[in-house]
Amino acid sequence: MKILVARLRLIGDVVFTTPLLRGLRRHYPDARLSYLVEPAAAPVVRDNPHLDEVIVVPYHRGAARLASDLRIAWQLRRRRFDIAIDLHGGPRSAWLTRASGAPRRIGYAIKGRSWMYTDVVPRPPDLAPRHCVTNQWDLLAPLGIEPGDPQTFPMEMPVDPAAAARVERLLRDAGIGASHPLVVIHVSAGNPFRRWPAESFRSLVVQLARRDPHRRIILTSGPSDADAARRIAAAARAALGPLATAVADLRELDLPELHAMIARASVYIGGDSGPVHIAGTTRTPIVELLGPTLPERSRPWRDPRCFSVTIDAGALPCRPCSQRHCAPGDYRCLTGITAERVADAAERALAIEVHA
C-alpha cells in the first residue's frame, strides 16, 4: 500500500496535518507514506517519524511552475500510489493529486475541483468554531479512520539535533545559560489581522523584564515583517535602560532553529501564525494571542496537560471575520488585548514551568 498526502502550505496548516499522519500510520502500519509539500513548510514534516518520504515541490511562478508541476506529476505517477489525500484543497494540490494517478483520491467538495477526486468530503465553513485538525480528520473518514484527540494524536515536529546545537551556541555566545528563564516572543504574522500592535509588544517586554531582571527575552519575526523584532527590541531596550541586557540580540533563526529555541524556552508568546503551532509541537507553555480567529479553531492541538492559554478581546459582533476587511476599521479584536493581561498569563506559565 502506497499513500500520498498533500498539504503544500502554510507552516501552521502543515503542522495541523501531523496528527493525521499518526492516525494513518496506526491504520496502515505497513504502508509507505509520502508527503507532498512546498519548501517553506518542508522542515515541519522532514523528520516526521510516521513518514517514509517527503516530496518537496519547488515554488515557481508562470511557465517555470508549469514545467515543474509536469515533472512532479510524472514522478508521482511513476510511484504508483494506491491512495492520494489532498489535505489542502487548492488548485495546485488538487491537480497534483489527480495527476498522481492514484485509483483512490480523497479531497474536499470545492466548486470546480471536486471532479479530481474519487471520494469527495464536505468542507466545513471557514469561520466555523471547529478546530482545523478536526476539519482535516474528515478527509480520513472514507478510509474508516475515526477522529483522534489531542492527547493521543498531538501535533508533532521532532527537534533537529543540529539546529538545537546551533541554538545552544547562540545562547551561550549571548551569555544566556540554563539558569536564565527564557521567554520567546514572536512579534509578526502573515497579515495585519493577526498582528498585535508593536507598542503592545514593547510594553509586554518591558513588563516581563522589570518583573524579573534575570529573565532573557528573545524576539523573533517572520519574513512578512523581518525587521519587526529588531524594532521592538530596540524600543524595549531604550525603555529598560540598565535592564536592557534582558532583551537578547540574536541573529535571525531558520525554522528548525526557531523550533529548537521554543523547545528550550520557559514560555512562548505569539499570535495566531505558524510559529505558535510550531510551539504546539513542544511541551513549552504557550500564551497565544487571538484576534479575528476563535480559540475553538486555532488553539494548540496538544496534550492538555501542557500549559496553553489563549487571550482575546472577547465577544465582538465582527468576530470571527474573513480577514479581508476590518469592518470597524480599528482592529479592535487585537487592540482590545492589553499587555498587562498577556504579562499576567506569561507569569502563570513561568510559575508552572519553574516549579514543574
Strand order of the largest sheet: 3-2-1-4-5-6
Radius of gyration: 21 Å
Count of separate DSSP helical elements: 13
Structural class: alpha/beta
Proportion of helical residues: 25-40%
Distance from first to last alpha carbon: 44 Å
Q: Indicate the proportion of strand residues.
A: 5-15%
CATH C-level category of the largest domain:
Alpha Beta
The count of strands amounts to 11
- In round numbers, the mean pLDDT is 95
Give the full name of the CATH homologous superfamily of the largest domain: Glycogen Phosphorylase B
CATH topology of the largest domain: Rossmann fold
What is the name of the CATH architecture of the largest domain?
Answer: 3-Layer(aba) Sandwich
Q: Biggest sheet, open or closed, and with what strands and sense? A: 6 strands, parallel
> Stretches where pLDDT falls below 50 for ≥5 residues?
none
